[in-house]
Write a structure and sequence with these properties.
Layout: H1 31-53, H2 57-75, H3 79-83, E1 86-90, H4 97-109, H5 112-115, H6 124-129, E2 131-135
Antiparallel strand pairs: 1-2
Helix pairs in contact: 1-2, 2-4
Main location: membrane
Domain RDD: 63-130
Region (Disordered): 1-25
């Protein structure tokens, strides 16, 4: 007996379990955009660190963290996020607010939590902060 309807791979997509659309606005931002956003933020942090703080690696990380925490907590994304048309939201669709932004940023700076992803393409830093990165 043949089954009708989509197969398991066709019936699911990143964000489906969170109630997010498959594509378009508010769908889970894909890896390329997210990595490009981090690269933009790191380059900006490196420029600021070299210009104002002598280029010390810890200073660069601090500037990077500040860009992320302030950006995500106030406008829903870092400069790299905004440039690449993605934003960070709480899983329920609301703005993340300051404490989620700080938790998410600290875990992002540790790198490993951000490198461990679930089926919804959320890093452990997003899961622990209760956030998701979506397309604008």
């Amino acid at each position: 007996m043949a089954r009708s309807g989509p197969s398991g791979a066709e019936a699911t997509w990143p964000g489906r379990r969170l109630g997010l659309p498959r594509e378009g606005s508010r769908s889970v931002a894909r890896t390329g955009r997210r990595l490009a956003g981090v690269a933009v933020d790191w380059a900006l942090a490196l420029l600021v660190s070299r210009a104002l703080l002598g280029g010390d690696p810890w200073a660069t990380l601090g500037v990077f963290a500040l860009l992320h925490a302030v950006g995500v907590g106030t406008v829903g994304g870092s400069p790299g996020h905004l440039l690449l048309r993605v934003r960070v939201l709480r899983v329920d669709g609301a703005w993340p607010g300051p404490w989620r932004a700080v938790v998410r940023t600290l875990l992002l700076c540790l790198v490993i939590p951000a490198a461990i992803w679930d089926a919804d393409q959320r890093g452990m830093h997003d899961r622990l902060a209760g956030t998701v990165v979506v397309r604008r």
